Amino acid sequence: MLKIAFNDYYIHSLPEGHRFPMAKYYLLPQQLLLEGTVDENAFFSPGKIEKEAVLAIHDANYFNDLLELKLDRRAQRKTGFVHNDDLILREQIIMEGTRRCAEYAIEYGVSMNIAGGTHHSFTDRGEGFCLLNDQAIAARWLLDNNKASKILIIDLDVHQGNGTAEIFQNTPQVFTFSMHGENNYPLKKETSDLDVPLPDGIKDNEYIYLLEQSLDQILNIFTPDFLFFQSGIDILETDKLGRLGVSIKGCKRRDEIVLQLAKELDLPIVASMGGGYSEEIKYIIEAHANTFRTAQHIFF
What is the pTM of this model? Predict the structure, then answer.
């Protein structure tokens, strides 16, 4: 059974100015239900993550400042949000969603979070609409609880997973792979275990070639027993921030490659949705829905 993390806090706790672009958190589950890709039993509502799981990744002073709303205005601006109690609770719920997805992935092969992919969160700070790093927290939880020993994070959002790279820079059990727009945010890139910078306007064929080549390269030197997939759809040609030229068909092919790899190698995989900023929300919903449809088709 495909298990999907979703909580009303994903939507209703967002500051007013962010509710329209984040409407996908409401519309995507509705689309999946309407078309019959999943039924209501697929969804689970995560609670708040345990503090110990967060502190296994994030600096205690930073996390406490988040909880107590003590970050100054400059630090808040860097995250992209004005902070309030509901927003901080939302972040903790998203973190627990991805951690619980990791448990479900071990049981069912795959699990997915409607939100997450917060790869711009560093050990001691947040950036780019990311306060805490969900895949890093879940990966560390797996390692600490002996549920995985070698983890590959496949980050295919258009923006480099800079926070994830920093967090795991000295952790050989975690391989960080980021394929991202060379000229896109962040201006200063961190160093992942493998970075593949992409030129503006790259089309489907070259994108897919580089992805398959990169995965082959990684698997020749690293043998994971668990996968995380940051499946941002801001690589689309319709995305107002992405600057790449990948079609919806090409984005779906990307998902097929990653999810089929997990299935063929019998590797549990967790997907977090990441970014997507097309002007027309129909493109966002269709591309994200394709990731869920593909997982359902390949695994079940």
Answer: 0.97
